[in-house]
Design a protein that fits this description.
The structure is a single chain. It is built from 13 helices and 17 strands. The chain is α+β, with helices and mostly antiparallel strands. The chain folds into two domains: about 110 residues, Ubiquitin-like (UB roll), CATH 3.10.20; about 325 residues, 2-Layer Sandwich (Creatine Kinase, Chain A, domain 2), CATH 3.30.590. The strands form two sheets. Strands 7, 8, 9, 10, 11, 12, 13, 14, 15, 16 and 17 form an eleven-stranded mixed beta sheet that branches. The two termini are about 40 Å apart.
Length: about 450
């Protein structure tokens, strides 16, 4: 026997691997992408041909350790143990195999970064979330989650003055307006079909506030699956647009004068089949943990310079470290259950798609679990727009550097991240803050809309 993920014995082939090989053959997948999310929040990966899939699904594909020191501008940072010497393997999770409807002939699997002997690597984001889920499980809890993403749909055109490319929105419809449904209809139907084919059950969809802005949510899942789903969602939103000669951006603020794109994080906590967020005590402690760590959490849930262009008061982004029942200006909203089958859940509003979803959700779990263990009091819920009462409520960080300072000072989250991961993340994100310092909004927004 071997500890390598997906490994087989001579007489007992892993049935998950066998099913993947059969599906790839039946569906005609010529290339299978092994995807992961890096410290810059970028979705990266390598692909194997179908003829080599049987080998690569167990061995993984070789990868330099240095890639986890790369920022979103493809600038390599100087991080100890993440240089030219060293190798990891991109090892796919067979249970995540899906054909890609928007890329005929291709399929994908979400992947872990592992050492050559198959053991976990200390800089793997997906492993960080797995460990957080295990810590929560050791206390008897299971988290279900869903990201609620927004994106801007349009076309990427050259700037007539020679500046960076522009994102020209598909329409100028109003929020929730019927014209927004109609102008984006063909794209939206293709997107829904592509998501459903990959096992992402669509909940609802509507035109949002800004020109070309759309919101489409998928059903909640267990924490790891929710993060995997968000990677697939990001890839599919953009892939479908590209095949229709359009451009879709999930960047927090792709157009500086227009509404920003959030990816609000919805959470429910379960024990023995019961949603314990129906209990004011457990829910309150979890909220207390989120609020206690929220300044540091924003460095992970709002993971880019562009995030803080969105995270401002009076735009429903949750710029204040408060909680409230159905308060859409509070960072943590206690959501009213919808319908007879609705379940209590929390919405974390300072969250967007430039974040690495594995690091983001893993850190949220650690923060909430700390609140439960220490029975942290969240304080009184806020029933007003906190921005209307200047100076009364704590404001969240206003820049990526400020959020990173808070993260470095947060012992709980720094310990959870571990030495290699935290050193790499801080180096990558500090470099991004420095790279955009002094640059204008057009440059910043362009770089983010082309990546996210």
């Amino acid at each position: 026997m071997t500890d390598r993920p997906g490994a087989t014995t001579l007489h007992q082939p892993d049935p998950r691997v066998r099913r993947v090989l059969e599906r790839a053959e039946l569906e005609g997948a010529e290339l299978i992408r092994f995807l992961y999310a890096d410290h810059g929040g970028v979705i990266r990966g390598k692909a194997t041909s179908r003829s080599r899939l049987g080998e690569r699904i167990t061995s993984g594909i070789g990868h330099t350790v240095a890639m986890m020191a790369m920022n979103m501008l493809d600038q390599l940072q100087d991080v100890e143990h993440l240089g030219p010497v060293g190798e990891v393997r991109i090892v796919p999770d067979p249970s995540t195999y899906v054909a890609l409807p928007h890329a005929p002939g291709a399929a994908t699997m979400l992947s872990d970064l592992r050492l050559p002997d198959g053991s976990p690597w200390a800089a793997c984001p997906r492993t960080f979330l797995k460990d957080a889920v295990a810590a929560l499980g050791a206390e008897g809890y299971l988290l279900r989650a869903a990201f609620e993403p927004e994106f801007t749909l349009g076309r990427r055109l050259p700037d007539p003055t020679g500046g960076p490319d522009r994102l020209v929105p598909l329409d100028d419809s109003l929020c929730y307006a019927g014209t927004g449904f109609d102008t984006a209809h063909d794209y939206t139907i293709k997107l829904i079909r592509a998501l459903e084919t990959q096992g992402l059950r669509v909940e609802h969809c509507h035109p949002e506030l800004g020109p070309g802005q759309q919101e489409l949510s998928v059903h909640h899942a267990t924490a790891l699956r929710a993060a995997d789903n968000h990677v697939l969602y990001r890839e599919t939103v953009r892939g479908v647009a590209m095949r229709m000669a359009m451009w879709a951006s999930l960047a927090p603020k792709p157009l500086p004068e227009q509404a920003g794109n959030g990816a609000h994080l919805h959470l429910s906590l379960w024990r023995d089949g019961v949603n314990v967020f129906g209990d004011d005590g457990v829910r309150g402690w979890f909220i207390g943990g989120l609020l206690a760590h929220l300044p540091a959490l924003t460095a992970l849930t709002c993971g880019s310079v562009n995030s803080f262009r969105r995270l401002t008061p009076r735009v429903w982004a949750g710029a204040y470290a408060v909680h409230g029942h159905d308060n859409r200006e509070a960072a943590v909203r206690v959501c009213s259950p919808v319908g007879e089958l609705g379940e209590p859940n929390l919405e974390l509003k300072p969250s967007d798609s430039s974040a690495n979803p594995y690091l983001s959700l893993g850190a949220v779990i650690h923060a909430g679990l700390d609140g439960i263990r220490r029975r942290l009091d969240p304080g009184e819920p806020v029933g007003v727009d906190p921005g209307t009462v200047p100076g009364r409520y704590p404001r969240l960080p206003t820049s990526l550097d400020e959020a990173l300072d808070a993260l470095e000072a947060d012992e709980t989250l720094m310990e959870a991240l571990g030495p290699l991961r935290r050193d790499a993340y801080l180096a990558v994100k500090r470099s991004e803050a420095a790279a955009f310092a002094g640059r204008d909004a057009a440059y910043e927004c362009f770089q983010h809309l082309r990546v996210f």
